[in-house]
Amino acid sequence: MPKVGMEPIRRRQLIDATIASMGKHGLADTTVQTISRGAGVSPGIIHHYFGGKDELLAATMRSMLQQLRDDATQRLAAADSPRARLEAIVDCNFAPDQFEPRVVAAWLGFWAQAPHNPALSRLQRINARRLHSNLLHALRPLLPPERAERVAVGLAAMIDGLWLRFALTGAIDGSAARAVALGYLDSELNA
């Protein structure tokens, strides 16, 4: 008989083990066995709490997106100007916890799998729309509507591209990526 109150603890434990397994093995070699071994539980626990690997992967991506959203919400609440809001958005995407190797591996796995997995694809679209909406909201007081839209698209691409460059090469860290993204933003705002 499972202990009362264990479900949120087990779910978190399995999500953390999924991220760790993706960091160590990559998505293709992350299995129910590698996850359960990392969590110190039997493989049946994954099926009990999530129904299977695909559902656990979707829950893991939702958890990572929620952490990113919580960070953005906290930073945006402290921002006192449109420019500060833009900086907060850039900062949360290049925060140190987004550059942990296991987190990088998990994001890469999700992005690679999203075109083939409807649940992950839906989560990716929600995240992209949220980023675009936050950027556009902050840019509207600073630029005419058409330019605000263009700069929002460009800055979102810059954020994703710089993050991906780090993930694939390890040659750039969050602070360097932040500086490049904010340099692009400043050049667009001053044009």
Give a structural overview.
The longest helix has 26 residues, at 53-78. This protein has 9 helices and no strands. It has a domain at 60-190: Tetracycline Repressor, domain 2 (Orthogonal Bundle). Helix 1 (6-25) crosses helix 6 and helix 3 (43-50) crosses helix 4 (53-78). With 191 residues, it is mainly alpha-helical. It starts with 5 loop residues before the first helix and ends with a helix.
Task: Put the structure in a nutshell.
The protein has 191 residues and is mainly alpha-helical. The chain has helices at 6-25, 32-39, 43-50, 53-78, 82-93, 101-113, 118-139, 145-169, 174-190.
Query: How would you name the CATH homologous superfamily of the domain at 60-190?
Result: Tetracycline Repressor, domain 2
Q: What is the mean predicted local confidence, pLDDT? A: 92
User: What portion of the residues fall into strands of 2 or more residues?
Assistant: under 5%
Distance from first to last alpha carbon = 65 Å
Q: How much helix is in the residues?
A: over 70%
Which outline best applies? elongated
Question: What's the CATH C level of the domain at 60-190?
Answer: Mainly Alpha
* Number of H/I helices: 9
Number of strands: 0
CATH architecture of the domain at 60-190: Orthogonal Bundle
Query: What series of H and E elements makes up the topology?
Result: HHHHHHHHH
The largest pleated sheet is described as:
none
The CATH topology of the domain at 60-190: Tetracycline Repressor, domain 2
Which value, in Å, is the CA radius of gyration? 18 Å
Sequence stretches where pLDDT stays below 50 over 5 or more residues: none
Indicate the structural class.
Answer: mainly alpha
